[in-house]
Amino acid sequence: MKRIFSVVLAFAALASFSSAAEAKLRVVTSLQDLSSIAQAIGGDRVETFALAKGYQDPHFVDAKPSFVLQLSRADLLIVAGLELEIGYLPPMIDQSRNSKIHPGNPGYLDASVGCNILQRPAGQVTRAMGDVHPYGNPHYWTDPGNGRVVARAIAGRLSQLDAAGAATYQKNLAAFEQRLTQKQAEWGARMAPYAGTKIVTFHDSWPNFAKAFKLNIVGHVEPKPGIPPSPTHTLETINLIQSQKVPVILVEPYFDRKTPDYIAGKTGAAVVVFYPSVGGTPAIKDYFSLFDADIDAFVAAMKGKK
Amino acid sequence: MSTDSRAASARCWILGACTVFCLLVPAAARAQEPQTPPPDDAVTALRKEIEALRADYEQRISDLEKRLADLQVAQGQAPPALPEETAPPPPPQETAQAPEAVPPAEPTAVAEAPAEPGTGGGGGEGGQTSNYFNPSMSVIGNFLAVAGRNHTENLPATELRESEVGLQAIVDPYARADFFLSFGEEGVDVEEGFITFTALPAGLLAKVGRIRTSFGKVNTLHLHVLPWPDEPLPVVNLLGGDEGWIATGASVSRLFPVGDVFTEGTLQVFRGQAEGLFEGERRGDLSYNGHYRVFADLTEASNLDLGLSYGFGPNGTEEDADTRLEGLDLTYRWKPLQTGSYRSAILRGEVYRSRREQPGGDQNAVGWYVSGDYQLARRWFVGARLEAADHADDETRRDTGKAALLTFWPSEFSQLRAELRRRHYSLTDEDANELLLQLQFAIGAHGAHPF
Predict the structure, then answer these.
(1) Closest CB from B88, B198, B337 relative to A99
(2) Which of B94, B110, B409 to mutate to test the interface with A (most CBs of A within 10 A)?
(3) pLDDT of amino acid A19
(4) B163 beta partners
């Protein structure tokens, strides 16, 4: 009896210790972009962990058991949604043994809700179209306007999970929004001279970016989403670039540059490595520097053309 | 034709006609209903309906606007620039997940716009709501063609080896269910059918039903995700045949993290019967399995996965005769996250030992395989496998094999694989050289990528 008592006591001590250690909210996100925004809003009250790294193809993330461990300890899981994570996240949520982060519970936040989502298929969707996302293009965070919507959703959810920090979250949100408004004006001004520029991209990751900065995507190096470039399609792309006088080809950092470089060699278009996510390079350390870096690269390439 | 049978057939006709009539009449009545009012009335009615709908919508929109403004006032914010396009309805999460309910406390009022009726993609119409909760479905075809000579293991020249139908959905806030029905060319097997309790206390995860037991590594995998078109010899000889060890019962597992290293313990209890492996006669003759898994990231790009397994159960050769199984599995993966190079590699190996009590002396059989896969290009993989296994019921008989593989993925949803295989069979003392050509294709819900 004495022993049982001491065991119970030990457990109680352990529990109180661990609750003291859990002062910070643990936020796990699928993308580094979401982590960056969550960190900006949460400040010292949260610690964040992103499953996919910024230089990694967010469609193909390995469901590593070490991620299950992160999820098992999470208070909040923020996903990009629109089936971007379908290849790895659902089984890991089940294995996490953490019902807080199950879809439908406050610890699960789908960041796409409320965002301006493009390319939501209107008619029948089949895989003859490649690896299409039936709920719309999931690369929506490349529009800073959507970043604002995501930041508000995160602030709301953090306030709900940690009411004591609500004032801090609202204050941080206001600061984030103010900075974003200022940055949006700056980015808009830098991109304004290139409004209407025709571009070709490797994967269809950029419709939101193109819409936000008034670029005109005329084609893709991939014949269909997720299908690698074929010789016929490469020829078509070369013709397209020549006939439409496309100055740049945007390539995500996780794709092979061989075909884009070949096309560039034939047409004189410039290949620009365009980072879709925070963490794509060490310099891209937050949501703001993501746009800074991409716009720098774009402007540099366009200046080189003139 | 005799009068009797003629009368019978006449009765059949009358019955049939009656049935058809009964079925048609209500349908025809339904079809005629909309035509009963004169056309002018119908137009007026329709117009009224539209007017009513419009009024309703305007009311709702103004309500929403008011709520939005109220919220912003409450937060002391200027009204934000709303996105140009209307907010989309929340998509069903990952097909198998229940749609997320937007909590009412959300300050982002824009997120609540999807609550409007009529925008709920397909779910809006009354008759469709039942479909909304249908399980996500997938079918995976596994076609195998074989060339070469083999008198011992005589695979057909061409075969649709398996059509695996997967049905998966969330049951309720506490559980999800997964069914995998494996159709051969004739007949069906429930390969797996289980419920997983995902919201248990104390970090437990429980499965109940028919499952592939957590013994070793490949035994837990479905045929279509194996890195080869065939099961390796240790599974065939020591785990009861091509299917491996599939059993019906319950499984409980828990995480035991050691710092940031993932470790997981699993305990499983099954009925004492599993095809080719266990044959308990009494209800109390159960089979058991325990598995311990350790996973560690060595670097960002490489990791090590280690498993220890121990299982036992009655083998039915005589009263209280057991078969005891021990397993060790090791997997090393290397895959740079920056996938532009399209290079990756996996090395895996397993050793099983089976100790079988049987009349005439206990048999102590060992089996193993080692296999490697290397990614050459975005869609091309080469691989090799070495294998050897004693027979569970005769430790003196050992089969061996080696194989070379080439795999091509046209897309994420189809796969072509060729295996050049040489196996030595101890029973017939035969060396068989074969070429196995496998074509796999998946339709339906996008499943998770195996890891």
Answers:
(1) B198
(2) B94
(3) 46
(4) B141, B183
- Asked whether the beta carbons of residue B95 and residue A86 sit closer than 8 angstroms, the reply is yes
Question: From the CA atom positions of chain A, what is the Rg in Å?
Answer: 22
Q: Which long-range contacts (CB under 8 A, 24 or more apart) does A159-168 make?
A: A159/B105, A159/B107, A160/A106, A160/B103, A160/B105, A160/B106, A161/A25, A161/A75, A161/A76, A161/A106, A161/A107, A162/A25, A162/A45, A165/A25, A165/A42, A165/A45, A168/A43, A168/A45
**Cα atoms in the 13 Å half-sphere on the side-chain side of A231:** 0
- In whole angstroms, what separates CA A291 from the centre of its chain? 12
Chain B residues within 8 A of A159 when measuring between CB atoms? 105, 107
One-letter identity of residue B179: F
pLDDT at A158: 97
Taking the C-alpha atoms of residue A53 and residue B28, their distance in angstroms, rounded to an integer, is 61
Mean pLDDT of A101-116: 94
Among chain A residues, CA nearest to B111: A114
Task: Please provide the average confidence, as pLDDT, over all residues in chain A.
Answer: 90
Q: Is the ipTM of this complex over 0.85?
A: no
Smallest Cβ–Cβ distance between B339 and the set A60, A146, A227 belongs to: A60
CA distance A122 to chain B (A): 10
Instruction: Identify the closest residue of chain B to A143 by CA–CA distance.
Output: B83
CB-based contact B100 A94, cutoff 8 Å? no
Work out how many CB contacts closer than 8 A connect A with B: 183
DSSP line for B92-117: PTTTTSPPPPPPTT-S-GGGGGGGST
CA distance A31 to A102: 18
pLDDT tens column, B7-62:
444 454 544 444 444 444 444 444 444 444 445 566 666 677 777 767 676 777 66
Residue of B nearest to A118 (CA): B85
Each residue's pLDDT tens digit, B307-318:
999 999 999 998
Partner residue opposite B88 with nearest CB, options A56, A88, A136 = A136
pTM higher than 0.80: no
The span from the CA of A149 to the CA of A159, in Å, is 15
